[in-house]
Every structure is written in structure tokens, then in C-alpha cells.
């Protein structure tokens, strides 16, 4: 039996996928709910999900979790989510298994120093909403257990 939370999650997921596919077929460039920055399109999805579930959600709309390659892109993406209660953190496409790697295989050399974490366990990274930077300490990212629930996901696809 589905709990009410799972039913709400499924409704939100269906609505997100439906709107993104419908609007994306009507307009060239970024899919409907996505915002353009440089040559990429980004979208924040509010969803209580583990890292793998967030990645699957992005894949449903032909996207991946975001790989962020500049401080400017980070600032832009940070403005996409509301930053209210439950919206402070979002999964991005950065994982650590002795070294950090973006979803696209590149190194985040502008972002983080390598961790001293030596266990062979993959950890995943969440991004902090830029709207909260003035309210909290200026933490941009947090490395956490991939099975933890985050308040959202940042999906990315190429601008076409």
C-alpha cells in the first residue's frame, strides 16, 4: 500500500515529466521547465529523494544531474531553487570515491580539494541554495551519504 507521501511524490514526478516533455516539444533550445545558462539548460526539481532516485528523475527527461564547471554557473543554478524550508539542498552530479568526479567524468578542480576520506565508499554531493547563503554560513556544497534524502535535484541538459 502506498503512503500518502509516495502518492504525492508520484503525482509530482508525473507532472514534472509530462510538462517537460510537452513544453520541450513545442520550443527549441531548453525544455520547458529548464533555464538556459551558457550552453546548458538547468532545472531544479523539489523532491525528497536519494541520489540515485534523483538521477533517475533527471534521466526521465533526457537530462543528468548537473555538472557545474564555473563559479558563475554555480551562482546561476543556486538561484533556481526557492531556498525555503526543505529547499535548502539539492543533489548534483558530483560523487566521491577517493576522488571527486562530475557526472560527465571531469574533475571539479575549481570547486573542492580532494577529500581525505580513504574508505572505498561512494559519497554524493548536495548543493546549497544561494538564497540561503546570507542566512547561514557560506557552505556551497556538502558531501553526504548517497542514500540520504535531499530536498531536490538539479537536472542539466544541453541547449539545442
Explain the overall architecture:
This protein has 160 residues and is an alpha+beta fold. Helices cover 26% and strands 30% of the residues. It contains three helices and eight strands; from the N terminus they run H-E-E-H-E-H-E-E-E-E-E. The protein has helices at 4-26, 51-60, 71-78, and strands at residues 35-37, 40-49, 64-65, 89-97, 99-102, 123-128, 141-145, 150-158. It has a four-stranded antiparallel sheet. The relative contact order is 0.22. The model is unreliable at 22-27 and 132-137 (pLDDT under 50).
Q: How do you describe this structure in short?
A:
The chain has 160 residues and is of the alpha+beta class. 26% of the residues lie in helices and 30% in strands.
